[in-house]
Amino acid sequence: MQCHSPPHPSLPQFLQLLKRVSHSSSPASESITLLDDSGFQANRDLICSAIWALREEWKAAFVAFNWGNCYDDEKVCNLMIWVLGTHAKFSTAWSIIGDMHRSSISTRQAMLIMIDRYAAANNATKAIQTFNFMEKFRLALDQEAFYALLTSLCKHENVEEAEEFMLANKKLFPLETEGFNIILNGWCNITTDIFEAKRVWREMPKYCITSDATSYSHMISCFSKIGNLFDSLRLYDEMKRRGWIPTIEVYNSLVYVLTRENCLKEAIKVVDKMKEEGLQPDSTTFNSMIRPLCEAGKLAEARIILNTLLEENLSPTTETYHAFLEVTDYQGTLEFLSKMKGSGLGPNEDSFLIILAKFLKLKQHANAVKIWMEMKKCDVVPSCMHFKTMVEGLVACRWFIKARDFYEEMISNGCSEDPKLKMIFQKELVDSGGKGKQNVKKVTSY
């Protein structure tokens, strides 16, 4: 869900105004008047771009939506509903849907968004109720909407609820392979629960459901993820015997499990076989070798595969670089950060979370602090998660002075206080006695 409108030239200034207005204690009417007198024109592209840019700050996004009076624009309404649902502001989202319905604007997509947001909030009951409620808005409870519900539930790890709902409604929506594949995907690729996946796989024939290529792909993926080479190859052979053509996803799964189980030569042979079958290996194919090699500490082999990827005129992805960042030393980390920047792939917030967690786990707190400075050079703004990772890691390394400095900066940046960390600092101050004044800064209240 995102806004595809081109960036508006005055968007940065408009965003600043919206943030200021949303944090103001003035009545809503005064905020609207301030926006009316700002000189900005409430056109669709500006409002849509603003809502998307402010998707992490729902209040400011909602100010833009209300000021733009976009209740008659289905696309903008759907985007605002997604933002509100993401922040669990469901009552406000429902009010927009009510306005859309009264204005005779289609609410089908809006309802599907609500289903997905409820599922994301781990509220499967509300997601299912919303599906059933679609009839109240004169929307057809067709198979497309039914599968959308199952997909949303599974995507957000409510697989058990999705499976129960599918079986309970088999009279209204006859059981088909596509429905079971959605459930299989949930168990295989979302939760990676091989026991549940095998159970569903065994039960499919009992419901007269025939497995297809997608079914095999999900099961092979699951066996691959848990390192079960034997069953991955067994299902691959069975799939071919039954006339199903393996997709690139199946071959990527085989490449991964072979590499993970120390069969790199065989994995490379699978890549060659892909080419013989007319399939072009992609970045994911090579990542499927790079990732397990890095996890096993085989950096030399991983670098060789990275060079092969480049020789194939393929581009590394963020996942490629993150695999190396998780295991390389300080110099190697700087090298791959530079490569990411050069290829236009960041580094991003996740990149630095990976690196900070790595060095702090290794008790290399000095390197973690140096990486913090690199993060600022890369124009990545530290989030509350970055601060918390640093503070907790430095405390674990017993570097209390630096930990306290980061904690104070964390609070000053608007992050919530952490009672556990605050207690640790207080305890260290007491335990250190007279040395506490030298080792730990005085604890202050916020």
TrEMBL record:
Domain of life per record: Eukaryota
Residue stretches of each PPR repeat: 212-246, 247-281, 282-316
Classification via Gene3D superfamilies: Tetratricopeptide repeat domain
Keyword Repeat: yes
Keywords: Repeat
Family: Belongs to the PPR family. P subfamily.
Protein name, per record: Pentacotripeptide-repeat region of PRORP domain-containing protein
Source species of the chain: Lupinus angustifolius
